[in-house]
Task: inverse folding
């Protein structure tokens, strides 16, 4: 016999066990439903690409460059695992421009890989969830993306959040008004740290990169402008015209005006953005950072194509959102099975158990059958541990009487019902089966 | 300006454009719904693992060994991309045995990578879609997996198929009866090619590996045993006891008896299987091969754990199924948008268009808005190309009259309806929006 191999995963990589995988899948499905409601279509790109294609845009000294998984394949090609979904989408848009046509709206949900330092709690494999509308400079597109973010939060049962919006052009014009005009890109990158590091640290850094103390104060004053977006934008001049139009479009498309906050400190560190920028914060846990961010850019695929491709996009931080729910204690009772019902097994009754389960599935109730006729106490412990909401006992006694015993695992009570009433009874019981967040089952199938 | 980089993908890798990605996502969602209905829970494992973990089980000369993507990471670890989902699941089960408990049923859908020769039309990145019940030797589990396959085919709108079942033990006992007893594993591997290569080629190969012509004839006679499973199994003796029990359980759990075919030529090449084995063929395109296969094994994780983990599993060949639909011409009219409705854009009416779209989405109808007020002919060509079912015209005239014009893109007709009747009218129109396969929209959201 061969010696056994240690069962382990790589540093920074991990398995998802059912408890968390169920929550993640539900969120992904909710997100996809919202994306499709707005007409976004799915696409897929390969995990592995030519290094040249993926790295072309990167500064050779950049952190991402050092983090990328890059190697030579069987054909001695220089290849790499994608580190985000934006670069592959730029390549995709340039390559398939004729086939897909413009404007084009897509969503893409998939893993990306970065060899980050896992000490910092960072994962080396994580999920990205992006949408973009390209091939249009229209404010209607920006407004739709903002409205989509509000719909998405609602569909994920996130009620307490702020969607903070800004416009790079508005910010730059405010800086110019305040006399700060030179070298604005580095200023934006520093300002972007306001939420995390606070004004004192940011002021220090602004002076370190060469701003006078007057200019630093002016920048911080501009960044302190903040309030309900629709109202505050009315008080501003022509420099806010673009963002006003975007916010009006967002409200027309269904964004909740009470969630839209104009926040001039939202700069988005990336050079990439040129117009509207936004971030989404949970009211109950703002410190975890933005859970949905994005903005408008002038040209997605400059590296691969001549004709410019303007667009607007958003990225949902699914892992971060689930981490937030975990920290807020909202996942404490998450089951590790998608089936709310377990049918127990009795000796010589396997076919009867299978038939009960079949009838429940036909009625739309996801149902598991315990496969072996082990002791009832053993089977009940299994149900307890998995988080089944109800357990069905259909042993020789019940079969003889034409009834079924239902155990409510939460109330720890049992009720005997007529076979014909079983499905209705369970439906009623499961209707109380609300979970805390993002996850209100739309059906007894356990997933929305 | 930096020189442009050629936008291209690696050989054997390809993008999925919306048309096909929409079909693929629908199928995945249907499959997940069925898996959950039977109590299977999702898990995830990393794309990248220690080579030792992934390769431990492989013959160093095997084809897969040569095909694997293997390299040294930043920490000089010997790592590889997973080439299937079975080996990672074996590692997962050994590693998390205490946390997950037994029995354990999981599904896992994800990409795997093999550097196969792309000349043969093989892809180097493809999707696997696996379910398993482990920690039980019960025939009830085998029966549930067969019933699940029938449910899955039904949910995918595949009505014309055969689920061919066999039992390795039954086959071996039939061979023994016919006097073929030595070196049966190679015989099974040859027999497995019957469907593809036919009896003449198989007979040649059997004689080449050392069978007498009598033994070869006996093997082929055994493999020709085939018929409706429930009936045919009644005519067999105790050697068919196991499979009889499994098939009875399958029928009790909801398998369609008319689809269950006992076929003694089903051997499944893998050494891995020890009991029930099965394959699923499309009546209209059997030559494409099995689209859902699996079976029972004695020990999943022998390489990583001491205590044996018996189980039974199935794997859905999603890419093959979609290829089959494509060959059967069933995807000819597949749209490249998930939204059946497009709202056109008129000059200075952007907010009105957004409001119409919002009302339709609130009514559960996925709706796209064209972002720019381009010429109507241009916008209509866009809708034609994308495959929108209906187009909404809500220009200044319509706004003044409180009506909306709806263009039926299939009938090429227009109808003016009252604003208040728009959603109902569209619902009616979309109800006729059946697609050919696997994909009957359960809602106007365009996805099931």
Result:
């Amino acid at each position: 016999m061969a010696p056994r191999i240690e069962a382990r995963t790589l540093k920074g990589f991990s398995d998802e066990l059912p408890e968390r995988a169920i929550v993640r899948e539900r969120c992904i499905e909710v997100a996809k439903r919202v994306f499709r409601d707005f007409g976004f279509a799915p696409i897929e790109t390969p995990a592995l690409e030519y290094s040249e294609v993926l790295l072309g845009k990167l500064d050779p000294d950049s952190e991402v460059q050092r983090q990328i998984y890059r190697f030579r394949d069987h054909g001695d090609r220089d290849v790499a695992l994608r580190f985000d979904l934006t670069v592959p989408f730029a390549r995709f848009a340039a390559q398939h421009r004729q086939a897909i046509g413009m404007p084009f709206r897509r969503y893409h949900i998939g893993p990306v890989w970065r060899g980050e330092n896992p000490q910092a709690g960072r994962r080396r494999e994580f999920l990205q969830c992006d949408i973009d509308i390209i091939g249009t400079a229209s404010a209607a597109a920006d407004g739709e993306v903002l409205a989509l973010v509000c719909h998405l939060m609602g569909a994920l049962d996130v009620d307490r959040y702020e969607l903070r919006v800004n416009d790079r052009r508005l910010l730059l014009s405010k800086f110019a008004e305040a006399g700060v005009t030179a070298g604005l890109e580095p200023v934006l990158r520093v300002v972007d740290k306001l939420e995390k590091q606070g004004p004192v640290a940011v002021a220090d850094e602004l002076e370190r990169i060469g701003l006078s103390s007057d200019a630093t104060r002016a920048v911080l004053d501009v960044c302190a402008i903040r309030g309900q977006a629709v109202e505050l934008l009315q008080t501003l001049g022509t420099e806010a015209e673009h963002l006003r139009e975007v916010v009006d479009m967002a409200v027309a498309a269904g964004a909740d005006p009470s969630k839209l906050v104009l926040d001039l400190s939202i700069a988005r560190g990336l050079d990439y953005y040129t117009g509207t920028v936004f971030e989404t914060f949970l009211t109950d846990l703002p410190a975890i950072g933005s859970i949905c961010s994005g903005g408008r850019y002038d040209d997605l695929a400059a590296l691969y194509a001549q004709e410019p491709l303007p667009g607007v996009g958003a990225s949902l931080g699914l892992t971060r959102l689930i981490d937030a729910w975990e920290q807020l204690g909202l996942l404490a009772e998450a089951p590790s099975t998608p089936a709310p019902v377990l049918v127990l097994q009795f000796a010589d009754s396997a076919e009867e158990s299978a038939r009960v389960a079949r009838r429940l599935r036909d009625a739309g109730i996801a149902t598991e059958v315990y496969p072996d006729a082990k002791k009832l106490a053993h089977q009940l412990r299994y149900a307890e541990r998995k988080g089944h909401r109800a357990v069905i006992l259909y042993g020789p006694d019940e079969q003889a009487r034409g009834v079924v015993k239902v155990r409510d695992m939460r109330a720890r009570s049992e009720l005997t019902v007529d076979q014909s009433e079983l499905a209705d009874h369970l439906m009623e019981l499961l209707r109380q089966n609300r979970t805390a967040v993002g996850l209100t089952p739309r059906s007894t199938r356990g997933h929305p």
In short: Chain A touches chain B through 115 residues (CB under 8 Å).
